[in-house]
## 1
Amino acid sequence: MEYFFEAHKLLVNAGGVKIVRGLYHEIDWNARVIGIKGFRGVGKTTFLLNFIREKYGDSRDCLYVNLNDFYFSKRRIFSFADEFYKRGGKVLVLDQIHKYPDWSNELRQCYDELPGLQLIFSSSPVLRIFEGNDNLKDIAKIYHLEGLSFREFLNYRSGSNFEIISLDDILVRHKEIVPDIIQNVRPLAYFPEYLKSGYYPYFIKNPEFYGESLLRHVNLALEIDVTYLNQIELKYLPKLRKLLQLIGAQVPFSPNVSKLSAEIETSRATVLNYLRYLKNARLINLLFENGTNGQLQKPEVVYLQNTNLLHIIAPDNINNRNQRTTFFYNQVGYQHSVKSAKLLDFKVDGQYEFVVGGKYTQTEGENCFAAADMIETGEGNTIPLWLFGFLY
């Protein structure tokens, strides 16, 4: 136990670069069980350590442990938590919980038998916490740490402190909001860098190896998260990789499932399952028709999950149209319902329709809007595309 207290103290006192994430203020930190899901390298560990620094410092009330440690190949989580609790511990932070077998039963036992202990854990986005699992259904609050929003990236790069802006405010008050931003910083000067290498925080330490870092994490997500956590045999990994490559080469596109199944030599049902797995892994986004739940249907359009993935998976398929629509769906879809629209590109929250385009993009209608690239300020229902990066 002392070894972990010492390791915890070193990590907490190490400091380092801090990016304030919008998710921090959305979490109910008083909940007994809190889960933070996120893609590899998206910053889950840093996020947890920043929470510990801010609330507990190196107090022994709180303990951070990484379940990658070989110690937990022989020690049960409950046994460890029980000892920590008896030593006066109040908050146990368990990083990488998906690496530990029988994790949900262990957490449930901790919850039931250690009533004064708070449990905070991180996991792969693929981990099924509630699906087919009643252990944590009514006791855990689960949150997703996405990649950096354009706002978070801009704050870090420019030393600014811009606040989150709601969708309603963007739609109604964008002409009032934008001048307060551009008098301090020129967002379009940072926008191309964000689209290429600003979504994941790898750029902080090794910007020159950003592409290599992202490619490595994509491969690890396929090799471990998607296959292992979905109980897919490794012999099928080449099919998943080929499917992702085919998607990247064509996005955004309406998938021909029969053609995809022929190209990767598997069934239509398996292709639909693979698409769902890749979406859950935060590698692609699926756009469904308005009014459908998208569980078993063929998606209307497939996108990569963010623009940075375009640059390492499909560098030959990068164009303005692709980047614009991928950015819009990525940033707006985090907290809002995004479906396909009959005449325009997207329908948001069942009522607002958007066309996403270039500088001269315009639209008409009370609930129809244009998200236009390469404009600093908008007019009427034409809104700067970059401003939708301030939603979280």
Note: The longest strand covers residues 118-123.
## 2
Amino acid sequence: MCAPKWFPAFALLFAAQLAIAQNTPAASPGIEQRIQRVESGLEGDIVLKGDTRATRNLADRMKELNVPGVSIAVVHEGKIGWARGFGVTRVGGFAVSPDTMFQAGSISKPLAAMAALRLVEQGKLSLDADINTYLTSWKLPGAPVTAGKPVTLRELLTHTAGIAVHGFPGYASNEPVPTLVQVLNGEKPANTPAIRSDAAPGAQWKYSGGGYTIMQQALLDVTHEPFPELLRDTVLAPIGMTHSTYEQPLPRAFQLFAATPYHGDGQPVEGGAHTYPEMAAAGLWTTPSDLCRYILEVQQSLVGKANHVLSAEMTKQMVTAGMGNWGLGLEIGGTSPNQYFSHGGDDAGFVSLFVAYENTGEGAAVMTSSDRGGIIANEIMHSIAAEYNWPDFRPTERTAIHVDPAVLARYVGTYELQPNFDIVVTLENGQLMTQATGQPKFPVYAESGTKFFPLFPAEIEFAEDGQGKVTSLILHQNGQDMKAPRK
């Protein structure tokens, strides 16, 4: 088990040549002003009430977080309002443009789900039949935990099938790449465990890239087509996603238009972009503009205006929230009439996010070329939400209170969250600071005399014994309460 991340760690600054670069023709004055406000209005998930310095500039954030390339596209009033690239495709390289391709990570899933649903409408698959009915090259083994209940396509698409393996790290350019069946069986050179049932189908929601890999094999066995060709013909081409492909690795002809992936420390991912034979789960290369074309297809298909892939009825099923607030390949949020669908993606050195409202013709997609890009993607989405007056995706405003430095001094110390993973608490100029092993220092702000919060969705609470001695720290994060005794 890897050590938990107390906060997203900041990395070293980029070299001076990484100043923001734009490779996009100027938009109309009104749109240009909107773009500039989005660029200068980045905010974190948490902001302090009354803090006039809460907003940050995109160029500064890219330097601080070692994110060399960012690409943004916005859907407004039912069309792509603008698209722009920022930074460079690689340090010292060309500027990012709206046509620069990024690996989409798990954003591959909703488009692959759309292909599966098209086959359902064609009568080649069923949402509710045993998936083994369609698997011929490989079968999902039975397991006692399933109690004889079959796994269905609907459950695979909604992450309720009880299938192991959350995600995939991919394969570096100097590593052998397994076949899909080897991935399913966890056989070398696969670098992930066998994809098997570990819970009863339909009993719980648990995110599973493994489930989408089973779905990929089912699509291959039913259509007898290579997966990239199947997705091109059934989804990408009909929607007009001309700068997208599921080919792995990326063909040489596309590489000139592709961003280079980077680690959070500013170093490029060794050997470049990883190869993902788990194409349905993680194999899409695309652009924010093409993701916005997908957004528009879903929005317009819901009302019967652009059913290039799915009928209105099937599209409605796709965005109907079930267990865990997931539809058929999409996370569903918001409230009626402002329900939205979204998905994030994370491949080695790439992080992306898209969000779109079902009924208002609004949405956006952000793609980045760094492991730390998710921080920026969220901040950009907050800025877009503010600029376009979305009802959601606004930062949470919290109020900090003053606590006597003498009280704060009682909390200074080292707290062991896990073996070899500590949170060190210090007091600097009256400000309580925290630093987790291998991460930089971050300030925390007082909610009460014992509870504190960072500018990030987490809280820490200090506990005392009967004599008033501070004995432990409790980290509240990601729905978990983790106790760290004081050393």
Note: The radius of gyration is 23 Å.
## 3
Amino acid sequence: MDGKKEDEEKTSEIHCLTIVGQVEGHVMLQPQNKTTRYEHVMPQLVGIRQNDKIKGLLVVLNTIGGDVEAGLAISEMLVSLGKPVVSIVLGGGHSIGMALAVASDYSFISPSSTMTLHPIRMNGTVIGVQQTFEYFDKMQDTIIDFVVRHSRITKERLKELILDTKNIAKDYNLVINVKSIP
């Protein structure tokens, strides 16, 4: 058998994209951090969309979240890919990982996985002015609206889960098993 034919046989019609660690966007993280870089994922998604040999995409998620704008941009690309997209959360789909998980046509979450839902937040220096708080509210609404549009949860229920202070774990995160979402 010649090399070209062997390569064709090994080529899958399903592309696998892994999003692990922290979604890195505008701020470059330290090298010891496990990251998925926005600038690496976006060209892959464009290539997948343009490649007629690729019939679908499997997204494997194990993320702690990360840059909100980068995560939402990747999510929007997944939604508009024009090919079937399936996601599976293995381990965690925390923070912006929630939007990444629901951006697919079908989303599966392993029974041992968790989703950490929390209000939008930022570490470091924040200018305490009204515009900053309005920006945070607008970004939170953007995330909530995206998740509601691409899942079967209501806006009211999602807000209730995100803002629930009775189930605080590590910081002010809400850790839930996705099976518990009605």
Note: Residues 4 and 10 are 10 Å apart (CA to CA).
